[in-house]
Design goal:
359 residues, alpha/beta, four-stranded parallel sheet, globular
Length: 359
């Protein structure tokens, strides 16, 4: 009898809506999302950009975090992600504001979009429809329409790539087309190496999922570059894997969280540490990871390092994203749960709807 993760019939029974298949389409959706951003009617380039603001939450907001990571070392402006109803006071006419809501009905993003309009920011909406599309069309704000029918967390390529494509099209940033194409090709190859047809005995994503079974995953970014990937891992482990998980970033965690590992009497074997590594990690941070493991993480049930693959920074970052997405789905299978539904989120939205119009 095949192992659970190698049993195609069991996988199909656990995942009738095929979250695994959606995860494996990341490269394809990146390429399609890039084309949507290049082809959309977004008007002429802004005269000046002091800030790029991305408004979005959950699966609709992670694209902003990835944009911040990709542009951190090159953009002449800050990229700020707002996951709230309100906006910073500095938002104004020289702010380029992207409102990202997959459904178009995220109440926090709708409130933030309204605030951006009041502040006279240059707005662009990225959505599959809903109230955001309705308001943006009424306001004369460009709308990048993306395919509907996906869980927002699986539509990352459609929500992230248009952000970068619009900035590239306006020549606010340059040089990312080749990296995105490399990412799409690399993800197709990695999907074969880490996908369901590769047996657990030769599949590192399945192996890590089995190691995380029954543990609390602790996902650490070894450097600032992989911070957004660590956040994505945490969110996917929550939504797909249906487990509690935490994340943090070196070197910040060395100034607080490291101490929390030292309390005597904490249950041994409760936590499983995963560190996301990249070729760009500064040597000093690599030293921090090793020293931290030696002096603080001895009580962890396990310690794993996941290294990015590829040449271009965007491709490397996306390789970590795909690996984590697959681990989260394989963990759901290992827990014998369907990775697709998110009933707690649905119930929260239902009750908020009953409570009346949002502020």
């Amino acid at each position: 009898m095949p192992h659970l993760l190698d049993d195609a019939d069991r996988r199909r029974a656990l995942d009738p809506q095929d979250m695994l298949g959606l995860a494996l389409r990341l490269g394809e959706t990146l390429r399609e999302g890039w084309a949507l951003g290049l082809e959309a009617d977004v008007g002429g380039a802004p005269d000046a950009v002091d800030h790029v603001l991305v408004m979005g939450l959950g699966g609709s907001g992670i694209g902003g975090d990835l944009l911040r990571s990709v542009l951190f070392d090159s953009a002449p402006f800050p990229v700020v992600v707002v996951k709230d109803y309100a906006l910073p006071a500095w938002v104004g006419p020289r702010t380029l504001a992207f409102a990202c809501s997959y459904s178009g009905n995220t109440e926090e993003t709708l409130a933030a979009y309204a605030a951006a309009r009041r502040a006279k920011a240059r707005c662009v909406a990225i959505t599959s429809g809903g109230e955001l599309a309705h308001r943006a069309h009424a306001d004369g704000v460009p709308v990048i329409s993306i395919p509907s029918g996906w869980p927002p967390r699986a539509a990352l390529g459609y929500l992230f790539a248009p952000l970068l494509a619009v900035l590239e099209r306006w020549e606010v940033v340059r040089g990312h087309a080749a990296g995105l194409e490399e990412a799409a090709l690399l993800l197709a190859a990695l999907g074969a190496a880490w996908g369901p047809e590769r047996p657990q005995s030769d599949n590192p994503a399945k192996q890590l999922a089995r190691s995380l079974l029954g543990r609390v995953p602790v996902v650490y970014a070894a450097s600032r570059f992989t911070e957004a990937a660590a956040l994505r891992w945490k969110c996917q482990l929550n939504e797909n894997g249906k487990v509690y998980a935490v994340w943090n970033t070196f070197p910040e965690l060395n100034h607080n969280e490291t101490v929390g590992w030292g309390l005597s009497g904490q249950p041994d074997g409760l936590f499983e540490v995963v560190v996301l590594r990249d070729a760009s990690d500064p040597p000093r941070l690599a030293q921090r990871v090793e020293i931290t493991r030696e002096i603080a993480l001895g009580g962890a049930a396990g310690f794993h390092e996941v290294h990015s693959e590829g040449a271009d920074p965007l491709a490397r970052l996306m390789s970590l994203i795909l690996f984590g997405d697959l681990v989260s789905v394989y963990l759901a299978y290992s827990n014998e749960v369907d990775p697709y539904p998110v009933p707690v989120i649905d119930e929260l939205k239902r009750r908020l709807g009953e409570a009346g119009t949002p502020p």
